[in-house]
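From: lab user (bench 3)
To: helpdesk
Subject: output format question, protein + iron/sulfur cluster

Hello, I'm new to running complex predictions and I'm not sure whether the block I got back is the full result or only part of it. Here's what I submitted:
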Amino acid sequence: MDPEQQRIEEDLRGLLQGDVRCDDVFTQLYASDASIYELRPAGVVRPRTLADVVATVRYAAENHLAIHARGAGSGLAGESLGRGLVMDFSRYFRRIVADEGDRVRVQPGVVHDSLNRYLGRTGRLFGPDPSMRSVTTMGSVVAIDSGGSHWPKYGSARQHVEGLQIVLADGTVLRVGRHAIDPARNDEAHTANGEDNRLPVLVQSVAGLIQRHKRTIEDRRPLSLVNRSGYRLDDVLSAGQLDLAKLLVGSEGTLALITEATLTVAPLPAHRGCALLLFESLDRAAHAALEIAKSAPSACDLMDRRHLSLARETDVRYELLIPGETEAMLLVEYHAESRDALRARLEGLVEQMQYTSGLAAASYIAEDEADFQLYWGLAQRFVPTLYRMQGLSRPTPCVEDIAVPVEGLPNFLRHLQDTLKRLQVTASVFGHAAQGQLHIRPFLDLSNPDDVRTMEELAAELYERVWLLRGTISGEHGDGLSRTPFLAKQYGPLVNVFRELKRIFDPHGLLNPGKIVPVAPSRITQHLRPTEAAKPQAAETAVGDVITAGANGEPRRLLELQLAWNAEEMAAAAKVCNGCGACRSTSPDVRMCPIYHVNPREEASPRAKANLIRGLLAGGLPEDTLVQEACKEVADLCVHCHMCRLECPANVDIPKLMLEAKAAYVNTNGLPLHDWLLTRVDLLAGLAARLPGVANWAMSSPQARWLLEKATGIAQARKLPRLARRSFLQQSALRRLNHPPRTSGEKVVYFVDTYANHFDTQLGEALVAVMRHNGVAVFVRNDQLQAGMPMIAAGALEPARAVAAHNVAILAESVRQGYTIVATEPSAVLALTHEYPTILDNDEDAIVVSQHTQEACYYLWQLHQRGRLKLNFQPQRISVGYHVPCHLRALGVGAPGENLMRLVPGLRVKRLEKGCSGIAGLWGVNRNNYRASLRAGLELMSTVRDGPFQIGATECSTCKMQMEQGTTRPTVHPIKLLALAYGLMPEIATLVRSTGSPLVVT
Ligand SMILES: Cc1cc2nc3c(=O)[nH]c(=O)nc-3n(C[C@H](O)[C@H](O)[C@H](O)COP(=O)(O)OP(=O)(O)OC[C@H]3O[C@@H](n4cnc5c(N)ncnc54)[C@H](O)[C@@H]3O)c2cc1C
Ligand code: SF4
Ligand code: SF4
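Helpdesk reply: Thanks, we reran it on our side. This is the complete output you should expect:
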């Protein structure tokens, strides 16, 4: 850490209750957002209290440091980036402070979606709907003046802000709203900290400024329906009052820091419905939008051909819905007081667009909620998904926020197409047509200087036309680094009024300098993310080292790659992360990062991991970063569950990046003792199994568990499964299952793994019984080892490789003999199919094993699909709450266990959609994580305890542990229920045959 940064960190730590970090790793995590820019701050502050905010501002003022407020960092224009102190409100300022029915008072870090979930319970909502609302914070919604698809109905944030609590650049705390501009009437003005004259002076100064420049303000006002560029001064002064709160909306943290916002809320619509209109050209869609805008829609979104093609490729339902020749589509939503009125509006729309004007080629009306969600999925899901496209050119947010008067839309779209053709650039177009708003993302490779020039040229060309049409270069997203360079052209002399306004609020330019009001001449191409400013510097040597050029061009050795990829592939994986922040979601219906769910702080997010690696490979971090504790701290916040890889719109392979980082650390520093022991759980279980009676006694003795916790780190309160008296592999040997069956039919080799081997041998028996019942011979190789997933997840690749190489060698041999490998433990399947080829450098046998391994339920489900599964189940009057484990989801095979259970007559299965169980492999077994793990799994655990079913079911052994924690209700593997239903293992359950009575499963 730079000595200056060290001083700042020490000083601020003495002043604040919140977090202060100025180290290299942390500042790298906060150096970027969802834009194309990167600027390393001097430090990061996460205030806990208002006093923290004030103290930081005063300290910054004394030390001439800038302050950049930040929420989720999902801004597309680099609005929250800067060289000073980033103040992250999203960590601790997350409270809904007051609820007064038609208004709420919130802290700035409250997430938009959380607010609307809260309001939804009482039939209300906060209307403006930026599309990243699952992570966007309310402070930023106000600071950016966010809006979205439903702007025609709800407008943007500025229509909903009644008052703000703010901290000025000198640390003064004020409550602002509407204020009389007559000084004599300002005695009611007050400040929260008693500095009585600050507010009246501010009001007078601002009002005077606006009055003096009334003409310029009016003349230079864009005529588009939406405008988020510059300061909005045209509608804040009226009837002798200045609406200071409204003026601060959209000020991008450049005038004041928002510490509370009072917002008006609206009732949920009584009835809502939507229709899709399909067009043969973008031009026809634009003309249709002009008509629709007059019909008071609640939303009217435009999608172009590229967008639709992506939807068709990704989801078969869209392929069926949208003909391949469709060039554009409009999604139109109406609200109405009755179902009939709604229907009439939608039918009227279709009649007009398709049959009267003939503009639309086809149309669909959503018949129910499922259709409604499906249609809206088109608008909401696919912008981020554009980033999945392969190749160096990426959808680039640089001219992504243009808005023109609606009547200028056809003209602008024609100009756009001509310009793109001339510059030979492809782009995707998505827009809110009723408000003339277009989100254009050209496909550019910003590591190529030619493309950087093209970006500048494109911006210049398109913006000229925007100004000709009296539109704005930002309708929703703000100016940030991306658009501030163009403000002088958009506003001419009005920019000087902006400058004066900035001086009134922030005379020393402390608050987010360089945004809206430029501090120096700037260009859209300045401060590009380093990996995008130059070709990736990382290059691979023969031995797999990653080398970058140091400051003086000398080679710097960063790391020796451990996994099956080269440096360019690794750099590309990190670069694919566009910083959108979707992985910061904590919505209960999203299975994103379980660690971020319990620990909503930037370093826990998958994005942080990509930023860390990108920073390292781009030369922004010291070469020994990966072996430092600060980096390990971030890497350890990944438990290798693979959920982000599935859910990330850009499919960034964060688990692989983190595995590389952990492996580098472990290679140099080794594993801490407790981690070492937990990664050897199979060995520990094997040792304990020599005296199972004693071991089981010890596991139920509080004193012994206390000792166990001290020795191994296994949390004392964690309910552990009982050890089997004889391991499944030993039992198999006695039953001669370890001899290859002599059969010409279907045959599987069962990969057992630790849990079924040492703890739940009955699961192995059930698997064998079910397979044999279906005519599938089972071979249990005695020479197999555990899968080694805990070692892999910890980055202990040396022992993991040894285990993997052994398993691969014996299993590949079985595959060559015609066996399919099956496993009952999803993480073992993931190890065999996904991890082994990665850690064994795509060894040929590892690929063979990977291609011939199946999760056991999936194997049986495939059998069923081929008509080969016996269906002679005995009816079971059992109700089951089923949880899909993360590692099963990561396999991408759906929920075959659930499908199989549904084949059993009388067995009632309820899918529990409660997200990750929270245990994340052995992470939640460790005493350091035990409580966090319970918090993460609370919803699932409570449902299992109290839900309207008799038992839980899941395939994963650690999810089962979590589901059984705090309840006597058992959780079983679906295969056990199949064995029971086939009548193969009646000992599995003692059923009291009346619904609602307890079911005892051994
Ligand atoms: C895929 C994608 C789609 C998007 N779609 C939309 C859309 O439909 N509509 C839309 O409006 N935006 C959209 N955005 C942009 C972005 O999500 C929004 O602007 C959002 O409001 C930013 O919220 P945030 O919490 O991430 O803010 P950040 O990016 O962290 O900050 C945004 C700005 O707010 C300021 N700020 C934050 N907190 C405070 C505070 N407490 N006091 C003062 N200033 C503060 C920051 O300084 C910065 O200037 C999209 C972004 C992405 C990646
Ligand atoms: S990891 Fe994926 S979801 Fe997260 S910020 Fe990067 S691209 Fe977005
Ligand atoms: S793999 Fe799992 S734990 Fe790791 S970052 Fe992704 S979602 Fe989070």
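A quick orientation on your result: Confidence is low (pLDDT under 50) at residues 186-193, 532-543, 991-1002. Let us know if anything else is unclear.
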